[in-house]
Amino acid sequence: MSNTILIIGESGSGKSTSIRNLNPLETVIINVLDKPLPFKGFKKNYIKTATEDKKVNYFATDEAYKIKGAIDKINISRPEIKNIIIDDFQYIMANEFMRRALERGYDKFSEIGQKTWDLIKHISQGREDINCFILSHSHSDDSGKIKCKTIGKMLDDKICVEGMFTIVLHALTSDNKYKFLTQHDGTHLAKSPLGMFKEKYIDNDLLEINNNINDYFNEDINQ
Q1: How confident is the model at residue 60 (pLDDT cuts 50, 70, 90)?
Q2: Which of 9, 93, 114, 184 has CA atoms 20 to 30 A from the CA of 198?
Q3: CATH assignment of the domain containing 188
Q4: How many separate domains does the chain show?
Q5: What is the Cα–Cα distance from 132 to 6, expressed in whole angstroms?
Q6: How many CA atoms lie within 13 A of 11 on its CB side?
Q7: How far is the C-alpha of 59 from the C-alpha of 92, rounded, in Å?
Q8: Of 45-54, 70-79, 196-205, which range is least confident?
Q9: Residue 223, domain member (yes or no)
Q10: CA distance readout (Å), 183 to 79, 126, 180
Q11: Could you count the other beta carbons within 10 Å of the beta carbon of residue 33?
Q12: Structure letter (DSSP) for residue 7
């Protein structure tokens, strides 16, 4: 199974910026909103159409079945890919909800919840050498806890998105610096395995985080 990592935070908290140092030859970005990413060289390094010397490493879609199809192709025929990024994950749910906004009844909430659950499960069943980072917005619930944004309480009652991940990082800004929180601080939901990260707050650099995760899960256990 691949490692799936959830990164949540407010808009502008540095989630997309954290992609900047990953090797584009080993990385595929699935951009749900197809918006420009906030780091230099984005359009040069991540392309939608293959050329003689570059393979496609950028997809723009908010359809869950298309995302699953792209991931399946990567798992089967793209052994060089080690990182998959799904950016603005919550808009997979939000866009489907808006497309179905005129439907009466509550069945659509159950269906969107089921699709979300199924997509996350599908992602986690990929190759063991792939780390998939799911970037999503956060929101505050009725108790003041800050967690992954969905499309409302009805969907939250059906699935706990954070519960489907071993690693949940929370993007924060402090003194004009982007940081990721690695453990729950009482308000912001975050979690990571014991000893994976040396600090409670780490730099928002997915290359460094990626290396840390790989080292942790492949480290020999001292007897």
Answers
A1: very high
A2: 9
A3: 3.40.50
A4: 1
A5: 9
A6: 3
A7: 14
A8: 45-54
A9: no
A10: 32, 26, 9
A11: 12
A12: E
